[in-house]
Amino acid sequence: MMIDPLSDIVEYRCKANLNLYDSSDCQQLATQAATGRQLRVCRLDLENPRQAIQVELCEDDYPGWLAIADWDLIEPASTVYQSQRLGEADIQQRLSAVIAFTLEAMNTPNHYLWGGTVGPHYDCSGLIQAAFASQGIWLPRDAYQQEAFTHRISLDKSQLMLSCLKVGDLIFFGTSTKATHVGLYLGEGRYIHSSGREKGRNGIGIDVISDKGDIVSQGYYQQLRGAGRVVNGYQSGTKSIFALRR
Fold first, then answer.
1. Which residue range is the domain that position 47 belongs to?
2. Where a domain ends, among 54, 76, 98?
3. What is the DSSP letter of 91?
4. Radius of gyration in angstroms for the set of CA atoms belonging to the chain, rounded to a whole number
5. What is the pLDDT of residues 185-234, one digit of tens each?
6. Which domain of life is it from (predicted)?
7. How far apart are CA 225 and CA 26, in angstroms?
């Protein structure tokens, strides 16, 4: 497919799983797009017109750079993407399947992959997004965006009471100013998440919200920020929560 920056094609569909990068040199993975997702072409890199195209994924408005070598893996979309409107009741009915997705992913050989969203290798927020998306519930891409999007339960560790949590809530970790990690609450103080090699489990595992757990659980407990509840699906075009980048 020839690249025409003046094309009237509005959106494209991914014919295969794609890697998107954080800059036009295509060195650092930013995120991935599963087969069937749609994207918009933003602009070509005029300094490297043969290397990458700047795009934006339609379901979560997430930006990235698509390598020119992968251009043949997208095709014009037959329809423009439209977000599905879901209420809290709809989401509650789907949470058991969301959790089942994460457990199946954990039981599949995997390791932590920064930018991973299509499996078997995920980063923390990529696992959460993929699990909810598997049930037609789109969330923003990054942990801090997911925190801003959810209904806040608590952002004060001293006030986070486990009795306030429900299965399927998101648990957020990070600094005092920004969420940098996220997990999915399973009940009884446990959460499932994909954590890194250096301070985590180098993949998907289950930890506890306690300073009495093993060294990994203790480490994340020290970074606990609070929790949030998914009460609706992300609506494409909502970008106010993207003020920061990870």
1. 12-76
2. 76
3. H
4. 18
5. 999 999 999 999 999 999 999 999 999 999 999 999 999 999 999 999 99
6. Bacteria
7. 33
Nearest to 64 by CA among 134, 130, 14, 136: 14
Before 76, cis peptide (omega within 30)?
A: no
d(CA 52, CA 43): 9
- For 190-199, the pLDDT digits (tens) are 999 999 999 9
Q: Is residue 35 part of a domain?
A: yes
Distance CA 99, CA 105 (A): 10
pTM beyond 0.85: the answer is: yes
Q: Are 105 and 204 in contact (CB under 8 A)?
A: yes
Same domain, 223 and 197: yes
Q: Are residues 124 and 41 in the same domain?
A: no
Same domain, 52 and 125: no
If asked whether residues 44 and 106 sit together in one domain, one would say: no
Residue that has been written with the tokens 């560790």 in this structure: 157
